[in-house]
Amino acid sequence: MSELLTATSALTGVAAPVFAMIWKTGEGLLGTFQAYRKRELAKHRINGALLDYEERFRARHGKAKFIGKSEPIDVNLVFTDLQYVDNKISRQESDSLQILETLFRDERRPNRNQGSKRKSVFEIAKTTQHLMLLGGPGAGKTTFLRKVGIETLKPHQQSEYGHSCIPVFIALKRLVSKHTSIERLIQEEFEISNMPDALEFTREALRMGKLLILLDGLDEIPYANLQNALLKIKDFVDKYNSNRYIASCREGAKYHSLLDTFTDVQIADFSDAQIKTFVESWFQVESNVEDDPQERELCKGRQKKFLKILQKDRNSAVRELARNPLLLTLLCLVYQGSNNLPNNRVSLFQQALELFINKWFALKKVQPNPILDQEFDPILEKAMLSEVACRGFVSDRVFFERRKLVGHIKAYMEANLNAPDLDSQEVLDTIKIYQGILIDQVQNYCSFSHVAFQEYLTAQYIYDNNKVSKLVQRHIADQRWKEVFSMVSGLLISGSDELLQQMVQENRKFINRDRVKNLVGWSEAAIYEKIQALEHKMPLSADRMKGKHLECHAWDLIIRHAANFYLLGSLLHSYTDALRGCGDHKMTSINRNMDLSGMLIKYSASIISEVYEYLSSKPVETTYKKEFEYFSNLIGSIKNMGVLSKTIIKIERHEHSLSKLRKLRKQLQQTKIFRNMNIAPIRENLALLEQKEKLGRKSSTEENRLLIEQMWQNWLHGLKVSPLDITDMSEEETELLEKYLYTHFLSINCRIRAVKISHESWNKTLIRMMQQATSISAV
User: Fold this and answer.
1) How far is C-alpha 33 from the geometric centre of its chain's CA atoms?
2) Model-wide pTM > 0.90
């Protein structure tokens, strides 16, 4: 009977046997037609219906609606294959909660499958007859179902799916009443395309197993019909189990467990490679690059810049959001608006949380659970989650025992006169299922879906409850609170002046040992003239141009202060590495000094990079082009000097060391990083290396060690640093120095993230930051 149909559709080969069976039993269209002419009319009618079905399927399901877009986008243009983790080799529940929390905190995302191999969801879809996709909101489940359906419409040899089926996409939110059935919804899909004998075709196609049924959103079934609909879906699948099925459900819901013939796969967060693929596709679609080579090149530039911004250390929290396709779309939209991401991250996390709490269901036109629809106000929910987040953060917890969490929700609701009378367990389940803000982790524990959400909500709680002073007093030196501090500064719309002043006051407490005070005072002395220049120009006049000039002066001061420690750390690294190379056996001392050099380099480099990124993000019209070029050249020189300094004390291949030393001397003189530096010791090091070059013989280990020590002493003499202050620091002194450097960096980070701060207040605060050791000595 297949010869009845002309091969004009990829579905022809699948549909022909179905119609043949209908006509054979005399139930369908041809049961009443015997004449050849009427058979031809039936054939053309069926061909037209199949082509119409393909066209309508592509039109209705071949495009996806994205946030911020008025028009849907072709799925093929933006599709990024999803990945899952094989549960058979996933992390065991027996792992301690502490280990899992540490992994979650370090990678800033769920680690339930840490170390397991990621696999393509498309690949398992091809080999699994009944597949269930589990994932959070915006994980890409619906887009994946649409993509598989589109692939099925292609000729078999061109299809990535590889199975000859008729795809039927069923949005389960359409199951609004007990009278609605899956079979009836499938029949309607065929009737829309004027399929002949739609009822008989549906029944026979189901019986013969010819359909790929895409069941989208088990969690989106209207709440009033939920239990009835789930039972109907199970009965339907059991009855027609020879068809292929792909269903989707949010990971917080447990409805999927009812469909016991399905293989469950948990969608993994986007990898770096998936983020790259998505971003490239997104910008190509947005730029319409097909016919414009110039625009294509500009598009590639935007892609690279955006991906580079995401990879920066300071954007670790933002990069965490990018691992969710929905939130990555939000980041792409924000970036497109200004060709950058905002310095103040608070707005990003506010928008991300708002998407999960409200907008995503509205965009998908889903009828939410009654708790969310009527009674549980989003403002109340955010306040409650903020308290949960902050309590956990104070206790150093990212996993929450469900029993205690339910108790906390209950206590919070009972203590609030305006809170509705709701079952606390239902509230928790609703948040997990419908919003995905909280997710299940190990047995009986859940967490926020992103560490960044817990940090943002913690900052919100501190801001809402006027606990900024306590935050500074208790947590300023705890690096776990870094993002919270940044976000608090971004929330202080009235100004961050007081926050920064309190941070500087706390920062002073770490300069309470002589060697730490001497090192900080040494750096302050090196930039004393610039500190005096800034102080002399206070108070600030109302002149805006003068304000900009003083701001540039302030950043110059910060960069040079950091550069002192950066170059000192680089020189210490060179000295320690050289000693290790000549067989020095004081390994404890060498390792301690190497750690100290790494710490000096780490925090000073972070400050310099933070300032540079901030300055480079400012529009050209709001800063001087000349000043920015100055800062670019200055920072470039500092980095070059750091590279040279890390290997400047070297006795092997001394001709290279001579060349480096000359370059370093020249750059030090040009940039004037150390204004009061004695240049004579550098000449002495040049003479030492030149003398070794003339000798032309291999030195003994002891001779090499003495030469290294002499070169190091010369450097310290030139920089006016006491050897006792840098190479003989105790463990306690090193810890205090690290706290000073970190909190100094944190203060600058909060200044950059601030919504509002006055020129006068910032300059006064900065002067106090740069006169810490001096003011302590005066006291």
Assistant:
1) 64
2) no
